[in-house]
Structure formats: C-alpha cells, structure tokens
C-alpha cells in the first residue's frame, strides 16, 4: 500500500517541479536584465497574471468536477457588454450615479447567471460540457458583439476603478488574486463542497449512488467559473479602459493551459489550486521576461514552447519514480 | 408458502428483436449531428437561393476537404484518449514547406510529399513524447503548437508563400467526375482510415486503449505503440491537410492553419466522439465537419451579420446536440 | 404470509424494463425491522435492479413503494437519505482520489467552522473500519492505492455510516477472505439486533443460511419463492434459483497425470513491498491453489509473474527463463492472467459485449497481411463464449455496462479461457457468479486441467479452493507459509496458517 | 440591381469604420453590397469569394487576409468575368487584381521612422516598438520600413519589439514591461490606434502621460486615424498620427468596382492613399480631411 504520506509528498513534488521551473526561468531572465528582479516588476507580473489566475481558479473547479468551461472569455466579454448596454439606457439623471455604482453587482450577477446557464444546460441535457460550452463560447460572444456592434467602446467611471485602485499600496487585482487563491485552496481542500467537487469529478456514478446532488455540484462549479470570468473581465477592461471586441478571445486556451500546467487532471477528480496559480505565474513570467529583454518577436513562441517542454520533462521525471502498478493507470 | 407455483411465470425472457425504428434511433445516438444536418440542409434549401447549386456545393466541398482530413487524423488521437493541439500549426508549417518546395522545384508532387513528410515528422515527435516519454499530451502538444508555428514564421518571416506553378492551382481547382479533386483526396483518406479503424486489429486496439487503458494493457495491447501511431496518423493527416490548403489557395502561409485547431476539435466533439476516448468514429467526424461547413456557408449566404451568425451557430450547437441526445434517448 | 416485524420498506408489484426488455415483472418484497432478508437468484435475475430501486437510483415503471408510513411511486435520493438507507453496491461506489476517511463520510461531511472536520471523519473511519470491521486500513490512505478487498471494506463502512434503518448489501463479500467475511457477518448480526432491516444479496448459499431469516428467490424478474430460511432446504433453494436440479456430487479435480512435466517454475520471487522469496513449481495439468488472507500478496504474485509489478527472482516457463516479462510476452508463452479487479483491469464498459469477448485475442482473428479482423470469426468466437459460459443477454452488440455484474464476470473469464492457454492464472474466477455458472466454470477448469493446462487458482472462497486444487500454497504476509497437498486439505488448518503463518 | 460582394479579412473597430464607409459609398453609387467576414482565415475568404463568383455578383471588393492567396482569388474571379478589387491590404501581385486602392504601410512606417529620427535630433533615443500581426503584411511593412528609416542613425535604439496580435491588452502588458526594463524610454511606436488604449494607462500610472512639449513627454507616433487617434492628438498626448483616409478609400474601391462591372476601363490600376500625417499643432486645420476627427 502506498502510504498517505508518500501521496502527499508526490503532490508536493509536482508543485515543487513547477516552482523549480519558474525559478530557473526567473534566474535566466535576471541574468539578462537585473530589472526583472525588482519589486516593481513583481507587481507588474502579479498584475498581469491576475485576470488569468482568477479565471483559472474557477476553471480548476470545473475541471475537477469533470467538466470544462470553454466560454470563460466570452463570459468576460458579454458581462461587460451587458453592463455597458444597461448603463447606456437613458435613465433619469438622479439614477445614473446609482447605476454607476451598481456596475459591479451587475457584472458579477451576469457572470454567475451565464455560468448557471452553462450548468443548467449541462445538467438538464446530459450533453457533455465540452459541447455545451463550445456552443455558449460562440453564442455569448455573438451576443456581446451584437450589443457592441463589434466596435471599440471607451469606458469611464466606476467600472474602471476596480483595476485601478490600490489598497495598502497594493493593487486591488493583486489582492483579489491572493484572496481567490487562498479561498479557492480552502474551499477545494478543506470545505465539504470542495470534497464533493472532487468526488463528482472522480466518479459521477459513485456520486449518484452515494446520494450526492451531482447537479448542484455542477451548477456550483459553472457558476463559480462564470463569477471568476466576470471578475477577470473587470480586471482586463479596467486596465485597458476600453471594451474591445477581442476581449477574452482565446482566453479559455490560456486559462486551461495554466490549469493543466498546475497538475489538475483534465478528466476530473484531481485538482490543485496552488498548482493552477503557479501555472498561471509561469505563463506570465515567460511573457513578462521576454518583453523585458526585448526578445525578437518571432522567437517568443519558441521560448514559450521550450519552457513548456521543460516543465513536462521535469514532471515526467518526477512521475517516473512511481511504482509500476500505479503508472499503469495513467 | 409461496414456493414453486410461479415456475411458469419464470420462463426465460425472450430477447425481443428491436424494431427497425428502434434500431434507427439507436444508430442516431451515435450521430447526434445527423438531425441538425438534415434540418439545416432543408432550411437552407428553402431560404437561400441557389443553395443547392452545383457551384455552391463544390465551394462547400472544397471548404470541407482540409477540415475533414485534419479532423480524421485528430479523431484517432481523441479515440485513444489523448488530445492533439498541434494540428493547426502542423497544417500551417506543412503548407509553408509544400509551397516552398513547389515554388523552388516547380514540382507539384515533390511539394505534396514534403508537406506530408513535415506532418509525419511532427506526428512522430508527438507520438514519441506522449507514448514513450509519457509527457501529458495537452501540455506537450501545446508546446508543439507554439514551436511548430514559430518555425513556420521564422522560415517565412511571416509572409505567405505564393505564386506557385500553375499546375498547383489547376489541380486544386479542378474537378474529376463532377467532384473537386481536393474532395476526392479527402474522400479517399476517409475511406482508408475508416477501414483502418473499423476493420483492422489496429483500429480495435486503438478503441480498446481509449476505452480503458489499463485493461488494454492487461489484454496484451501494446499501448505505447497504439498511442504512438495515433499521433503519427494525426500529424501525417495534418500535413496532408496543409497540402490540400496549398492546392486550394495556391499558396501556403505560416498561419493558415490557426483556425483549424478549434474547428477540428469542434467537428470531432460535435460529431459525437468522446474526449475521454474509446467511443467515436469517422462517420461522426464527417457529420460534425459537415455541420460546421454547412452552417458557416449557409448563414453567410443568408446575409446575417457575422455576430448574428455566431449567435445562431452557438444556439444550433446547443439545441442541436440536446435535440440529438433527446431523440436517441433509450426508451 | 405473516411475517412479524414492522415493515421498513416494502415494494409492491414493481415492474421495470430496460429498452423494452422487462427485467422486473411484478415483484413484491418487504424488509422489516430486525430481520435479514436474503435476495438470491441467477445472474441477471434482477437483484441489482431491485436494489437500485430500493436505494432511489432507479424509478420503477409501475408499482408502489412504502417507506415507513409513506407510500411513494419512486424513492428519491432525499427520501433514502432521510430514512437512512445505506447501500453496498456490487461495483463499489467509491472515489478513487479521495482518502478513506473522506469516502466513508462523503454523504454527510461534518464541519467545523466551515471546514471539513478532519479529526472527526478520521475518527469515524477508525471506529467503523478498524474497530467494528476489524480491518487494518489507514483512514488517510487514498482509495486508489487500496487493494480490491480493502476497497470493499471501505465500501461497507461507507454504507454503514449512511445507514440508520436499512442496510442493503449487494454481493459484499466477493473479494473478502474468510477473516473479513467473519467480521462482516458479526457486524450484520449486530445491526440486526439493533433493529436494522437488512437486505442481503449473495451467491454464496452458506452465507445466506448463516445470516438470513427469510429468503426471497428471484428468477427472470419474478419472485419464484419466499420462505423462512430454516424451512427451506438448500436443495429446494438451488432448484428454485436455476429451475433445475443441480449436480450435487462432491467436486473432485481430475487425477493428476503422474510425472507430468514442470511447466512453470518460480524461484525466490520478491518485490519491493510485499512478496518475499516465493518459490514453487507448477506441473502441466495441475491446479495450484493460492490461499491466504486479504493482503497476503496472492494477487501480487500473479502480477509479478506477468511483469505487471516489478520484482526480482527467476521465472522459468517450459524450461526457458522468462525475462522482461509483460502480458504480451506472457501470452506468447501461453501464460495468461485473469486479474481480480475486472472492472478496472479487464472490462471495456463502454464497448460492446462482442468486442469485450474477443479483446485479448483480436490479433488471432485477423489476417496476417492486412490486419483485417474477420467479422465472422469474431462473431462465432463470441457466440461460443456466450453459450459456454451462459452470458445473458448474449446479444453481442449490447453494451458491456448494461450486463448484470455476474454476467460481466462470466464474459471476462470466458474471454481468457477461450485462449486455451498452457498456464492460466485465475484470480477469483467465480466472484459474483451464480451457482449454476460457478459449477460450469469449475467443470471447465477441471476439464482443461485434465487436458494439460496448468492453473494457478487464487480464491478467497475456501470451499472453491479446496474443491478444485491439487495442492494449496498458503501465503502469509507475502511468504509461502505452508504447502498442503490435497490429501491433507482441512479448512481449519488453512485458515490458521493463513492468519498466523504457522500450523499450531 | 447590382450587387457587389465584399469580403473583409476580419472585424475590429477599424474595419467597422471601413465597413460603414463602404456601405455609405455603395449607397451613393446606388449599388447593393453583400458583406462577408473571413475572420482571419484564408480558407474562409477563399470560400466566400468562390461563393460570390458562383452567385455572379457584379464585382468583388476584398480586404485580403492572405496576400498570396488573394492573388489566386483575383485570378479565378477575373477569369470568371467578375472584376476583383482589393482594398487596404495589397495582394502580393498587384497586376493580378482589377484595381487596388490601399494605404501605403511602408510609407507610413517610413514617415513614422523619420519623425523619430528628427525628434531624436542625434541624441540617444530609446524606442519601444509595438508590433501588430507577425504574419500580416501591413504589420510586417509598418515594422520593416520603420526600422529601415533608422539605418545610419545609430543613436536610435529599438529596445523592444513586442508582438501583440493587434490586441490592446497585450500592448498594455508589453508597454508596462518595456518601461520596467527601460524607465528612460523616449518613444513608442504604436502602429495602430487601439494600441494607444494599452499605452496610456501605463504612462499615466508612471506619471509620464504628459502633453507634447513637456520635457518628460514620451514621443508617440501612431497610425490609423480613428476617432480614438484624433482625440489623442487633440489632447496633445501623441506627437504624430498618420491617418488612413478611410471614406476616400472605400469610395474609390466601390466606384472602381461599379465601373469595372460596367465594363469600363480603370486607370490607374493601382492607387495608394498615403496616410495623412498630422499632429497637435496642425490638427485644427487638418481635421476636415481626417475622418476620425469628424465625429
Ligand atoms: N504488510 C504489508 N506491507 C505492505 N503492503 C501490504 C501489506 N499488507 C497488505 N499490503 C497491500 O495490500 C495489497 C494486497 O492486498 P490483496 O487483497 O490484493 O492481497 P491478496 O493476497 O491478493 O488478496 P486478495 O486477492 O484476496 O485480495 C497490496 O496492495 C499491498 O500493497
Ligand atoms: N442499464 C441497463 N440497460 C439495459 N439492460 C440492463 C441495464 N441494467 C441492467 N440491465 C439488465 O437487467 C437484467 C438484470 O440485471 P441485474 O443487474 O439486476 O441482475 P442481477 O440479478 O443483479 O445479476 P448479478 O447476479 O449478475 O449481479 C440483466 O439482464 C441486465 O442485462
Ligand atoms: Mg447484481
Ligand atoms: Mg488481491
């Protein structure tokens, strides 16, 4: 029997591997330019990672429950577009300041609702989440572009302040990311719902047989993912100051990559929030460092691909130490 | 005492023969996009002028060909329970390589062979990494996506490669026996690989590996070899798809395949192949690819703005897959 | 029919069919407080389907269900939960990636300040597993690392944790050895005395008689008999189950051909974790039984022989040393393994029965040059296994998952025996299989042995082991504790060696 | 009535403006347009053009996505008797099309480069270059001709070339990171207006979003001439904007298409509308010529 301790160590090792890669990459960049390694750049990295990380934490839960949410980028876009459309409706003057402050609840609620729509469709139809969210990926984006007519919408007012506010000298997006990390870790690893998410993802059949309300767990993860996507949308537009039609395009890909790098299984039952955060960090650090050293644009993807290959090799090496009988199941 | 007298009631359950309708519905469970395909065809036939005209159909067939070929390859990877994200990039690189060789050597066939060889090479690398080194396919093929794409960009400086020998475009535009040449290629590929999948030991072992990898190993399937070949097929067919793109466009380019990644995955999963592996097939991929092409063209011809097209496509995907599932539910 | 006790759950005139094929026709059944009701019947009779209805997983097509005082058309998961019905499922309903403690309490995780109270669930798991069931399982272990037997114990603990009125056990002992069975029986009896109602589904008639107050016999979805256990002779029972008289002559393996050659020889086989210097010889036509408790390492020896587990030591097949072992290399030398965890290691649940039946030998059915699988050969092969092992329903296009548990087992055992191997390692060959099919499998093994096939038989079912084997190797903590020839077979001795490693 | 098929390479704010200009021009010319978006896919564009050919549209106006593939599209469509007009993005072989009306990405890049050279006035000058699409001809030329203008001016150092895929969020991160590495940055080249949305927040956060003329002002040159760009010029936030004359381009494209459809000859066969450079100092007088300044 493989002892519980060996198991725990193994999981830690995966994350250590990722940290090692991040460290190697960081040292490499620092050797190129010392400005990589100062506090200001740390802040840049964290800021640049925040939107991806938050959405990726939501995605971690979805994947853990054996689902997938391809619509995160579209949700980010559509929630903002809806908020803009609502704010654009002519209102009596005394109400307009009120609506300005209402923009956050509106965006958040829309995020959750769009996530719940995903969840409800998956629950009610029994069609795989991949197909449903492939549909909503297109549908939500179409709706968003229909609202904005694909043009660039400059934003003003409260909607921007989330990304531009500092609390105790640290930007709100960074706080949110930290908060999401701790909370996500706590919920997944410690709270009953986290265990249920892993249970449903590990074996939906067993979950049903045990009397777990599988549909409720699914609704929860999709709502959470919608919520996280909306928050990351707020961060993105807050930073850029405009809603452009490209917002969130291909976002699902980056987000899932971060989660997969972090060691979460794409087939459910195994997930790590900390791994996800590290995965998102690695992606951001690469991009940031390449910008900093002024790399040739054409070699960006070569470096990125090479580092990903390095990450999988380390991971494969770590897993290579496992006994044969266990390996058989991967 | 209630013993024995019910002996008579306990006669063997006669296996009732399923009716023809039940069988048809059962078959449909495996083709969730068939109803969508039928409905869409009928709807477009009546709403779009000349939808069924020979030239429009030929246009759709040419559009279908590379998507289908790439999706056939990727289906093998899905069936074995893995994923290949490098398809689009391999299509691009192979189109670049094929176009370069065609331009510089003037030979159509040399170019085509080069394109396919590039795909084969990428497939072998993917296969070796996933099957032998046991790299997780998602991350590994993602890395390949980036690297292969970058090679294409570096090779061309971002420019596409065109003005190829006239024979290229002639071959790509020509029809034989009423069907575009590129469709013939796709059809031949489809038949060969459908036979490989359905009729041969390799196909069977592939499916078993995808259905339960552990059990496959206990049942003396060489899982490594099977996974390796699945990736090799995927790479090679992506290479061939790149060649078809060159034939069709008369040029190759470092990003021509970018959109193909998402559309191949969409074609495969809409068709009804499971991403978990072990369940699916090429008829399904064909229906999935056909739906994508049909919607793309039909909605465009209807004159919807492109975002309203997106709304309709999204709704059709959702409603269609739910409807397909509902029609095929066990009764 | 005046059975006493106040009824907890009763089903009346339940009907259920799948895709038009009736599985339950007009079944009535009730379980009262403080009684153990045994539900028996052939594979595919509908027992698990009935269990699923009773545990709220399936709704009947018609009929009514009385739960306590409520009369319902179908049970919902909530009813089941609030009424306290716990179920042990034939195919285990565990979560591989969670810990033992979490599995046991998953249905109702206690919390402390919002977080799962881990000390609490660990304690619960300890109480149930270690104290009540006397199983030595670490509450913090991850379930996927447990052996099948251990998992079955966790499943039992999990069901007991949920249950506070009715406990349904669907073939709970298929992977348990004598010791664990004893503990389970003690627990069942204890619960009965506390007033629980218990529905016990099993193919082991001795268990049925030991535990049950009342026996209900199901055949083809109809209750064909219901009687107090002490009033129902075993002969009548088995006739009711299978609809014909069973051959009751004591089982005897064919005489071993004297001086038949040694076909497999194992020397000092050891692995990193459990197996210690195991050596034995196996002769053509011999049936060698491996006895021992759960965790004694029997399955591990089988895995090591096939190269599924890293090990040291020498294995010689037909005089040639067998290095670089793998299932594929093994099959080339005529050595096959029917492994114990069939759902995980053997079944392709989403594929058809036909594909499952020939999964291990498609290559033999293919043309050498083109690799094309002959459809006709595949069908005739499949049909033959279906007939020989009585797999029902035997339509080759049915999905494997729609077969009853026992029929899945029969199909997989049939798949491997169809190979006509020289050496066959059978790990729990008759688990989950009904008495008729069990006799058929036994007969087949004996017949094959008499024709020269050598068998290594691993079975937790001692009577089976003793009935079939020429010789029994009793293992204790990975070592061969004793080798007992057929003349000296004695159940008590074997149990003693298995549990202590010594005789007296 | 006459229908002209229009195939765009993609949809983005700038293209939305072009689309509107085309619709206006078509209305003025009394023709119908049938609009299709290739969404960054050469194959989809090919299939759209095929459809327009088989629909026997009177003429085709296309913004090519793949400049080599576009040559063949033009050849086939013209062979089928349908004039093919390319707009904005030049196909690889201009002789293949009936008529091309475009901006001049190389000249635009060169003008920008020369502006930086002049502004640097021989002193060391650190420049950040944001790049649009790595495989897009406009993007490549705007970059290449910028850098060609620096040949012989070693005082100008392009400290980073950041690939952005025309995405303002990537422009933002890229600017943030480049300014981290080079806090003493002197100039930024933003070859499309949306990039400014990514640049300004960073400059603002670093307190260097200062009007032209301020000693600490960072010199910015941008291309496009959208309302966004014009506003930035009016706010004196950027030094030079090179505006593409969108309505004029659309009008000429449609007019040429209509003419060709009526079998009239078109000459010249290729026209360039070089970008109109303007800055804060002359924006008032230039405004009437800049479409982005109209609103
Ligand atoms: N003392 C021990 N040391 C290490 N591992 C042990 C020990 N006891 C049990 N195990 C573990 O228990 C498992 C063996 O249990 P298993 O039930 O498969 O044994 P078995 O003899 O094959 O019995 P059965 O086939 O009846 O289940 C292995 O996974 C092994 O790692
Ligand atoms: N989901 C399903 N779809 C179709 N048929 C099914 C399904 N589930 C069960 N059956 C059929 O119902 C019948 C009864 O199955 P059930 O599992 O209840 O048998 P059982 O009495 O538990 O048998 P065993 O002793 O083998 O476990 C079998 O013939 C089986 O094939
Ligand atoms: Mg059963
Ligand atoms: Mg065992």
Explain what you see.
The complex is a heterotetramer of chains A (330), B (331), C (504) and D (295). With 330 residues, chain A is mostly helical. In chain A, 76% of the residues lie in helices and 2% in strands. In chain A, strand 2 and strand 3 (170-171) form a beta hairpin. In chain B, strands 1-2 form a two-stranded antiparallel ribbon. The longest helix of chain B has 27 residues, at 223-249. Chain B starts with 19 loop residues before the first helix and ends with a helix. By secondary structure, chain C is an alpha/beta fold. Chain C has helices spanning 47-54, 77-83, 100-105, 118-132, 148-162, 178-193, 205-211, 234-242, 298-305, 327-332, 342-345, 353-357, 375-389, 405-417, 435-450, 462-468, 491-500; strands at residues 7-18, 21-32, 36-41, 62-67, 70-72, 85-88, 111-112, 115-116, 166-170, 197-201, 214-219, 222-228, 262-271, 278-283, 287-292, 311-317, 320-321, 335-338, 423-427, 454-458, 471-476, 479-485. The mean pLDDT of chain C is 87. Chain D has 295 residues and is α/β, with parallel strands linked by helices. Chain D has a 6-stranded parallel sheet, with helices on both faces. A 6-stranded mixed sheet of chain D has the order 7-6-8-9-10-12, sandwiched between helices. The chains are: A mainly alpha (330), B mainly alpha (331), C alpha/beta (504), D alpha/beta (295). Chains in contact: A-B, A-C, A-D, B-C, B-D. At the A-B interface, helix 5, helix 11 and helix 13 of A face helix 6, helix 10, helix 12 and helix 14 of B. The complex binds adenosine-5'-triphosphate (2 copies) and magnesium ion (2 copies).
Write the layout of secondary structure elements.
The complex is a heterotetramer of chains A (330), B (331), C (504) and D (295).
Chain B: H1 20-29, H2 34-47, H3 54-79, H4 87-105, H5 108-132, H6 137-156, H7 166-173, E1 175-176, E2 179-180, H8 181-199, H9 201-211, H10 213-218, H11 223-249, H12 260-271, H13 282-302, H14 306-327
Antiparallel strand pairs in B: 1-2
Helix pairs in contact in B: 2-13, 3-8, 3-11, 3-12, 3-13, 4-5, 4-6, 4-11, 4-12, 5-6, 5-11, 7-11, 8-9, 9-11, 12-13, 13-14
Chain C: E1 7-18, E2 21-32, E3 36-41, H1 47-54, E4 62-67, E5 70-72, H2 77-83, E6 85-88, H3 100-105, E7 111-112, E8 115-116, H4 118-132, H5 148-162, E9 166-170, H6 178-193, E10 197-201, H7 205-211, E11 214-219, E12 222-228, H8 234-242, E13 262-271, E14 278-283, E15 287-292, H9 298-305, E16 311-317, E17 320-321, H10 327-332, E18 335-338, H11 342-345, H12 353-357, H13 375-389, H14 405-417, E19 423-427, H15 435-450, E20 454-458, H16 462-468, E21 471-476, E22 479-485, H17 491-500
Parallel strand pairs in C: 3-10, 3-11, 6-9, 9-10, 15-20, 15-21, 18-19, 19-20
Antiparallel strand pairs in C: 1-2, 1-4, 4-5, 7-8, 11-12, 13-14, 13-16, 16-17, 21-22
Helix pairs in contact in C: 4-5, 13-14
Chain D: E1 3-8, H1 13-29, E2 32-37, H2 42-54, E3 59-62, H3 67-79, E4 84-88, E5 99-102, H4 105-120, E6 125-131, H5 137-149, E7 156-163, H6 168-181, E8 187-190, H7 195-205, E9 219-224, H8 227-234, E10 240-243, H9 246-261, E11 270-272, E12 276-278, H10 283-286
Parallel strand pairs in D: 1-2, 1-3, 3-4, 4-5, 5-11, 6-7, 6-8, 8-9, 9-10
Antiparallel strand pairs in D: 10-12
Helix pairs in contact in D: 1-9, 2-3, 4-5, 6-7
């Amino acid at each position: 029997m493989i002892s519980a301790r060996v198991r725990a160590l193994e999981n830690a090792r995966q994350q250590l591997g990722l940290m090692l890669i991040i460290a190697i990459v960081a040292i490499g960049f620092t050797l190129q330019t010392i400005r990589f390694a100062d506090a200001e750049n740390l802040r840049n990295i964290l800021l640049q990672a925040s939107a991806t990380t938050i959405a990726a934490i939501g995605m971690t839960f979805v994947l853990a429950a054996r689902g997938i949410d391809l619509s995160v980028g579209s949700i980010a876009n559509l929630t903002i577009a809806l908020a803009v459309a609502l704010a654009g409706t002519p209102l009596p003057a005394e109400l307009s300041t009120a609506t300005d402050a209402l923009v956050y609840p509106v965006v958040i609620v829309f995020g959750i609702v769009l996530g719940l729509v995903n969840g409800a469709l998956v629950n009610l139809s029994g069609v795989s989440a991949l197909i449903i969210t492939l549909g909503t990926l297109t549908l939500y984006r179409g709706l968003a572009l229909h609202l904005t007519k694909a043009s660039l919408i400059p934003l003003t007012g409260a909607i921007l302040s989330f990304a531009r506010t500092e609390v105790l000298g640290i930007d709100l997006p960074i706080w949110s990311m930290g908060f999401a990390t701790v909370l996500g870790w706590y919920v997944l690893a410690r709270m009953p719902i986290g265990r249920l998410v892993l249970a449903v993802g590990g074996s939906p059949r067993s979950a049903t047989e045990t009397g777990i309300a599988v549909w409720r767990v699914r609704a929860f993860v999709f709502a959470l993912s919608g919520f996280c996507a909306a928050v990351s949308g707020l961060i993105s537009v807050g930073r850029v100051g405009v809603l452009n039609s490209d917002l969130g395009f291909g976002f699902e890909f980056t987000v899932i990559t971060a989660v997969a790098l972090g060691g979460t299984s794409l087939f459910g039952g195994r997930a790590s929030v900390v791994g996800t955060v590290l995965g998102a960090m690695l992606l951001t650090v690469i991009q940031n460092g390449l910008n900093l050293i002024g790399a040739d644009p054409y070699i960006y993807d070569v470096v990125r691909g090479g580092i990903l290959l390095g990450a999988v090799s380390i991971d494969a090496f770590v897993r290579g130490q496992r006994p044969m009988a266990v390996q058989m199941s991967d | 005492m209630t013993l024995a007298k019910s002996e008579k009631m306990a006669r063997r359950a006669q296996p009732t023969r399923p009716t023809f309708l039940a069988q048809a519905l059962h078959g449909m469970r495996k083709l969730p996009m068939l109803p969508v395909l039928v409905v869409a065809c009928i709807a477009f036939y009546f709403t779009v002028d000349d939808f069924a005209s020979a030239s429009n159909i030929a246009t759709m067939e040419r559009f279908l060909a590379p998507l289908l070929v790439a999706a056939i390859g990727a289906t093998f990877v899905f069936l074995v329970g893995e994923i290949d994200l490098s398809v689009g990039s391999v299509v691009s690189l192979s189109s670049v390589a094929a176009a370069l060789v065609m331009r510089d050597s003037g030979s159509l066939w040399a170019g085509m062979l080069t394109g396919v060889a590039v795909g084969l090479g990428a497939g072998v690398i993917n296969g070796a990494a996933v099957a032998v080194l046991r790299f997780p396919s998602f991350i590994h093929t993602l890395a390949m996506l980036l690297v292969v794409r970058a090679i294409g960009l570096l090779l061309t400086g971002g420019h596409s490669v065109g003005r190829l020998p006239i024979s290229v475009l002639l071959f790509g535009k020509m029809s034989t026996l009423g069907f575009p040449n590129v469709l013939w290629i796709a059809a031949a590929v489809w038949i060969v690989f459908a036979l490989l999948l359905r009729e041969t030991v390799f196909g069977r072992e592939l499916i078993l590996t995808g259905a339960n990898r552990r059990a496959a190993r206990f049942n003396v399937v060489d899982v490594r070899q099977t996974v390796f070949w699945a990736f090799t097929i995927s790479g090679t067919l992506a290479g061939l798809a790149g060649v078809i793109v060159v034939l069709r466009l008369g040029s190759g380019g470092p990003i021509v395949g970018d959109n193909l990644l998402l559309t191949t995955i969409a074609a495969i999963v809409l068709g009804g192949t499971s991403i978990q592996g072990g369940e699916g097939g090429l008829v399904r991929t064909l229906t999935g690819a056909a739906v994508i092409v049909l919607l793309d063209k039909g909605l465009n011809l209807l004159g919807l703005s492109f975002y309203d097209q997106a709304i309709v496509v999204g709704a059709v995907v959702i409603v269609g897959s739910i409807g397909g599932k509902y029609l095929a539910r066990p009764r | 029919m005046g059975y006493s006790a106040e009824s907890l759950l009763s089903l009346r005139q339940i009907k259920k069919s799948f895709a038009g094929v009736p599985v339950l026709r007009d079944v009535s059944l009730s379980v009262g407080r403080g009684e153990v009701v045994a539900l028996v019947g052939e594979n595919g009779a509908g027992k698990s389907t009935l269990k699923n209805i009773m545990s709220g997983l399936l709704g009947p097509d018609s009929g009514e269900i009385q739960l306590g005082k409520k009369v319902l058309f179908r049970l919902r998961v909530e009813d089941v939960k609030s009424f306290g019905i716990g179920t042990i499922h034939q195919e285990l309903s565990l979560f591989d990636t969670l810990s033992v403690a979490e599995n046991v309490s998953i249905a109702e995780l206690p919390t402390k300040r919002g977080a799962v109270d881990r000390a609490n669930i660990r304690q619960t798991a300890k109480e149930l597993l270690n104290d009540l069931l006397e199983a030595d399982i670490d509450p913090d272990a991850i379930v996927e690392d447990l052996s099948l037997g251990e998992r079955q114990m966790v499943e039992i603990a999990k069901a007991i944790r949920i249950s506070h009125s009715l406990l349904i056990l669907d073939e709970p002992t298929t992977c348990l050895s004598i010791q664990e069975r004893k503990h389970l029986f003690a627990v069942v009896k204890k619960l009965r005395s506390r007033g629980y109602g218990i529905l016990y589904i099993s193919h082991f008639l001795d268990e049925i008689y030991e535990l049950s107050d009342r026996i209900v016999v199901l055949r083809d979805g109809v209750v064909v008999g219901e009687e107090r256990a002490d009033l129902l002779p075993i002969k009548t029972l088995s006739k009711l189950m299978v609809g014909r008289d069973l051959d009751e002559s004591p089982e005897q393996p064919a005489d071993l051909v004297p001086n038949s050659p040694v076909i497999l020889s194992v020397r000092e086989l050891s692995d990193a974790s459990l197996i210690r210097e195991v050596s034995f010889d196996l002769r053509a036509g011999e049936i060698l039984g491996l006895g021992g408790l759960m965790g004694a390492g029997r399955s591990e020896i089988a895995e090591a022989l096939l190269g599924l587990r890293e090990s040291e030591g020498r294995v010689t097949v037909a005089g040639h040393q067998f290095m670089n072992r793998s299932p594929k290399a093994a099959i080339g030398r005529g050595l096959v393994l029917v492994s114990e965890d069939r759902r995980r290691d053997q079944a392709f649940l989403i594929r058809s029965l036909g594909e499952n039946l020939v999964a291990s030998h498609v290559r033999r059915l293919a043309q050498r040059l083109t690799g094309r699988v002959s459809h006709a050969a595949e069908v005739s092969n499949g049909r033959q296994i279906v007939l020989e092992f009585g797999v029902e329903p035997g339509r080759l296009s049915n999905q494997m998952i729609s077969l009853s548990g026992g029929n899945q087992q029969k199909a997989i055992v049939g798949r491997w025996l169809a190979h006509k191997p020289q050496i066959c390692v059978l790990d729990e060959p008759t688990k989950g299989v009904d008495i008729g099919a069990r006799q058929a499998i036994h007969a087949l093994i004996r017949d094959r042995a008499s024709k020269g096939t050598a068998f290594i038989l691993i079975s937790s079912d001692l009577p089976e082991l003793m009935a079939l084997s020429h010789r029994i190797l009793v293992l204790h903590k990975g070592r061969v504790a004793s080798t007992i020839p057929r003349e000296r077979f004695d159940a008590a001795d074997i149990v003693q060696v298995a549990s202590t490693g010594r005789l007296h | 009535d006459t229908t002209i098929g229009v195939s765009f390479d993609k949809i983005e704010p700038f293209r939305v403006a072009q689309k509107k200009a085309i619709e206006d021009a078509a209305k003025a010319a009394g023709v119908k347009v049938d609009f299709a978006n290739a969404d960054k896919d050469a194959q989809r564009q090919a299939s759209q053009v095929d459809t327009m050919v088989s629909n026997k549209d009177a003429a085709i106006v296309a913004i090519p996505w793949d400049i080599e593939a576009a040559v063949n599209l033009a050849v086939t469509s013209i062979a089928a008797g349908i004039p093919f007009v390319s707009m904005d993005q030049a196909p690889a072989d201009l002789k293949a099309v009936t008529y091309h009306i475009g901006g001049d990405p190389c000249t635009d890049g060169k003008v920008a480069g020369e502006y930086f050279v002049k502004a640097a006035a021989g002193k060391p000058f650190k420049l950040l270059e944001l790049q649009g699409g790595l495989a897009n001809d406009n993007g490549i030329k705007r970059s290449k001709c910028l850098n060609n203008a620096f040949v012989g001016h070693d005082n100008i150092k392009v400290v980073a070339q950041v690939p952005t895929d025309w995405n303002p969020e990537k422009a933002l991160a890229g600017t943030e990171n480049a300014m981290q590495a080079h806090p003493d940055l002197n100039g930024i080249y933003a070859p499309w207006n949306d990039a400014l949305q990514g640049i300004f927040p960073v400059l603002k956060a670093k307190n260097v979003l200062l009007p032209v003329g301020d000693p600490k002002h960072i010199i910015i040159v941008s291309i496009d001439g959208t309302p966004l760009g014009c506003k930035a010029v009016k706010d004196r936030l950027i030094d030079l904007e090179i505006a593409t004359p969108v309505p004029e381009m659309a009008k000429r494209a449609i007019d040429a298409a209509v003419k060709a459809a009526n079998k009239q000859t078109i000459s010249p066969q290729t026209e360039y509308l070089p970008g109109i450079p303007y800055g804060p100092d002359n924006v008032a007088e230039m405004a009437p010529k800049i479409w982005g300044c109209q609103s």
